[in-house]
């Protein structure tokens, strides 16, 4: 037990010792699994903390076919509040992680700065904050909540001037991404998602896609050091108000990423409900060196519910571990829920992602592979079901304890105290 860990669970060590024996009986080295998990950063998205509001104070609606529901008190209203909330969330999640920031979270000293004129200096305080915590950062141009995106088109806009504005925003953001990556000594994944699409059946599906490809080429023209910045492109099946046609579909971006050597971003909420992100990982990694994940949870029309330990989350983690893909996959989260405590949402989602990875790392994969290769599908199925009730929780509790974060639901008490002392005082 970690000397500094005040845990209400006196039996964590004992349970861990028994669990370790159980896993060892299956040939699984629990300590190795824990060591592997500790090396996996999850990129926490800033936008869960303030309902995707950002700090531009432009008065614009979120737009872009995105919707945040709920009015739980305590939304972060300033960058300092958001950083304080993230500080608390990160203190309740085992391991060292990353921050995923949107361009609309710039700090411009109260002076409005247009998005095509943003510079690394506007993110200096975020970079300093991450550096002090030994964290890396990822970045996103913001193609919504802006008058020039009000008609639902940005990089595929038919108007040359508007398209140019958004290309220049992308150029500015790639430079900011590179500055972040250089400052923090870890490549920044700069992910492009645009809302462009149509509510009803378009006549011309072709021209907007041709404009988007050309706009992306112009935006990506400047070569940047891959040690500092990695470009990613994120597709989507539909959005609110773009139900019939999305210019940047999955197929569009997969083709773009393969032909231009970019990362594709797979968002778990962006496919037809009968499709699963987990099945796409090994397909796209056959052709791409690296990808970005936006781990989310789609529920009916909404693509962005808080991540929980679902079968699909377990499958995603299994694919990453079984395929030995962790060095090629950047794991980010993407959800926004304003109906519950926003810090708790980060903690639940990130802890679930880590739990799923740990479960996958505790799998006797070599043995399961052997059964499959022998065609022994009966034993494969039986083993997969038996593995589900192994004492995984005891290993997770031990991991939280050695990483000096609360074991079990004890973290919720810290969030509730912060809610009473800090969040409830926000207007
Ligand atoms: C706020 C993000 O950029 C956004 O969620 C995007 O990644 C997305 O998934 C849009 O549906
Ligand atoms: Mn996403």
From TrEMBL:
- Gene3D superfamilies the record matches: Divalent-metal-dependent TIM barrel enzymes (3.20.20.150)
The reply on keyword Manganese is: yes
Record-level GO BP terms:
L-lyxose metabolic process; rhamnose catabolic process
Q: Does the keyword Protease apply?
A: no
Query: Which Enzyme Commission number(s) are listed?
Result: 5.3.1.14
Annotated metabolic or biological route of this protein: Carbohydrate degradation; L-rhamnose degradation; glycerone phosphate from L-rhamnose: step 1/3
Give the molecular function GO annotations. L-rhamnose isomerase activity; manganese ion binding
Give the record's keywords alphabetically. Cytoplasm, Isomerase, Manganese, Metal-binding, Rhamnose metabolism
Task: Give the co-factor note.
Answer: Binds 1 Mn(2+) ion per subunit.
| Catalytic activity annotation | L-rhamnopyranose = L-rhamnulose
Q: Which SUPFAM superfamilies match?
A: Xylose isomerase-like
Quote the Pfam families the UniProt record gives: RhaA
Q: What InterPro entries does this protein map onto?
A: L-rhamnose_isomerase, Rhamnose_isomerase, Xyl_isomerase-like_sf
- Kindly list the cofactors needed: Mn(2+)
Name the job this protein performs.
Catalyzes the interconversion of L-rhamnose and L-rhamnulose.
Protein's name in the database: L-rhamnose isomerase
Source organism per UniProt: Aquisphaera giovannonii
Q: What is this protein's gene name?
A: rhaA
């Amino acid at each position: 037990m970690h000397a500094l860990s005040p845990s209400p669970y006196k039996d964590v060590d004992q349970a861990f010792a028994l669990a370790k024996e159980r896993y060892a009986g299956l040939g699984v080295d629990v300590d190795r699994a824990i060591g592997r998990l500790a090396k996996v950063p999850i990129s926490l998205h800033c936008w869960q903390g303030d309902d995707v509001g950002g700090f531009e104070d432009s008065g614009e609606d979120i737009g872009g076919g995105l919707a945040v529901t709920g009015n739980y008190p305590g939304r972060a209203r300033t960058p300092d509040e958001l950083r304080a909330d993230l500080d608390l969330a990160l203190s309740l999640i085992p391991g060292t992680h990353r921050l995923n920031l949107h361009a609309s979270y710039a700090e411009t000293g109260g002076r409005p700065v247009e998005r095509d004129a943003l510079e690394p200096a506007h993110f200096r305080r975020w970079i300093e904050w991450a550096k002090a915590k030994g964290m890396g950062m990822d970045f996103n141009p913001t193609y919504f909540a802006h008058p020039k995106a009000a008609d639902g088109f940005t990089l595929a806009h038919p108007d040359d001037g508007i398209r140019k504005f958004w290309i220049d925003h992308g150029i500015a953001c790639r430079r900011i991404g590179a500055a972040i990556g250089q400052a923090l000594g870890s490549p920044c994944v700069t992910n492009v998602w645009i809302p462009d699409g149509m509510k009803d059946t378009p006549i011309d599906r072709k021209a907007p896609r041709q404009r988007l490809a050309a706009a992306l080429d112009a935006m990506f023209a400047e070569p940047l050091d891959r040690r500092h910045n990695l470009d990613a492109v994120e597709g989507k099946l539909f959005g609110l108000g773009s139900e019939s046609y999305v210019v940047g579909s999955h197929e569009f971006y997969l083709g773009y990423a393969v032909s231009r050597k970019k990362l594709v971003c797979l968002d778990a909420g962006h496919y037809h409900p009968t499709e699963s992100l987990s099945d796409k990982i090994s397909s796209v990694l056959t052709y791409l060196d690296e990808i970005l994940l936006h781990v989310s949870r789609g529920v009916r029309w909404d693509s962005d519910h808080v991540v929980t330990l679902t079968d699909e989350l377990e499958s995603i983690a299994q694919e990453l571990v079984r395929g030995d893909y962790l060095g090629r996959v950047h794991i980010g989260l993407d959800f926004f829920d304003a109906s519950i405590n926003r810090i708790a949402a980060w903690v639940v989602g990130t802890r679930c992602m880590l739990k799923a990875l740990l479960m996958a790392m505790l799998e006797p994969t070599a043995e399961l592979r052997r059964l499959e290769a022998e065609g022994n599908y009966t034993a494969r199925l039986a083993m997969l079901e038996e593995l589900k009730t192994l004492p995984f929780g005891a290993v997770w509790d031990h991991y939280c304890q050695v990483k000096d974060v609360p074991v079990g639901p004890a973290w919720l008490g810290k969030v509730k105290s912060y809610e009473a002392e800090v969040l409830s005082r926000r207007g």
